[in-house]
Amino acid sequence: MRIGALRPDSQRRWGRLTAPQMVCHLSDQLRIALGHLPAQPVAGPLRYTPMKQLVIDVLPWLKGRIQGPPEAFTTSPDQWERDVATLVTLLDTFGSRSGQQTWAPHPNFGRMSGPLWARLTRRHVDHHLTQFGV
């Protein structure tokens, strides 16, 4: 598992997050998807299906230039092993709900199906693990 190769002192290739901050950020994004962390909707063109699918599935993601919703930066790093274990548990919970019919809305993208949330999450996790060379 790529997450297991991550270390608290892993050096970032871009952006401002440290590895511990990134782990908490990914956990917060999963909490938003699962409906455990409410997020305020943001008006904009990303809420329209063609735009959200283009951004999630097609366009390259900019490195270090896009700030996610503030709710996705709620948790502060505490204890590395516990924070990583929380992330893995949230990923497992997220994956086990693949057949779920309703999902929490994304603050920027609005209503999302389970498959669209899954594609966004896979790409988001990959983006940040690549950021730290794992």
Short description:
The chain is mostly helical. Helix content is 48%, strand content 0%.
How would you characterize this protein structure?
This protein is mainly alpha-helical. The chain has one domain. The chain has helices at residues 2-5, 19-34, 49-57, 80-96, 114-131. The chain starts with a helix and ends with a helix.
List the helices and strands and how they pair.
Blueprint: H1 2-5, H2 19-34, H3 49-57, H4 80-96, H5 114-131
Helix pairs in contact: 2-4, 2-5
Mean pLDDT: 93
Question: Quick one: how many beta strands?
Answer: 0
- State the secondary-structure class: mainly alpha
Q: Count of helices?
A: 5
Portion in strands: under 5%
Considering the chains and any ligands shown, give keywords for the structure.
mainly alpha; 134 residues; 48% helix
